[in-house]
Description:
The strands form seven sheets. The chain has a four-stranded antiparallel beta sheet with strand order 3-4-5-6, with no helix packed on it. By secondary structure, the chain is an all-beta fold.
Amino acid sequence: MEERPNPFLPSRLLATDLLESLGADDLPIYDVAGEALYFVSQEPEGVVIKKVGRSTAPQYAAFLPLGGPIESLQISPSGETLAGVIGSRVFVYEFKSGSLSYVTSGVEQASNPTWAPETEVLFYSLFEKGSHALYQHDLVSGARVKLMDNRVAIRQLDEGRHIVVDMDQSAWLLVAGSEPQKLATLQSASPNQWQVAGETLYYTTREGNDSFLNASSLTTHSIEKTQIGTNQFKLNFDVHPDGKKMALVKSLLAESNIVKITRTR
């Protein structure tokens, strides 16, 4: 994992540490307060969720006895639950109880889970009848409601605003009472490769061997782009809650087991 200043804001000084890792690390996500960073490590015994703080080495936060890699990972607004996808099933993991449960069945093809603000409501996409549809799932009541067809991902920003991604990977801003506004064309609808911080939609793209972070304004709809790496095979990232820095996956050497953790002081 590497933590960098937000490239679209003034730079800050960084201090760098090198840490050994036994597995392939991916899917960085900050906790709600931004005091710690979680990430997935695929190790010989299974999938491990690790946590690193401002001045601590990575510690085990959860062990998930799953048979394959996690495809996406998101933390709930309460900071108490993780949601992710493995084998086309959406799962949730509760930190306090250490319990893992599946939200979707083994015959459903689910993807792109995101959390509604300040609730235990989960959004995700299901592939059904040759197309994708968005669902809203209340984890407390168990109620599931279909929201719309021909959409692959959604994020709720607040009470009257959502961003939805259509079948062509176009991201649209939906505001109650207004016409949809196209913000950008994504390369992936995975929630770990696009997110909103403040009034900006951030998303990663790849052009040849070069990787880029893009920023699309929700107000002006202007788009900026900056290169973040070369030969960077994983484009998952997370913007810190304060919007001033970001965590991303960076391979230092091909097939190396060295992981770079860069902390901002």
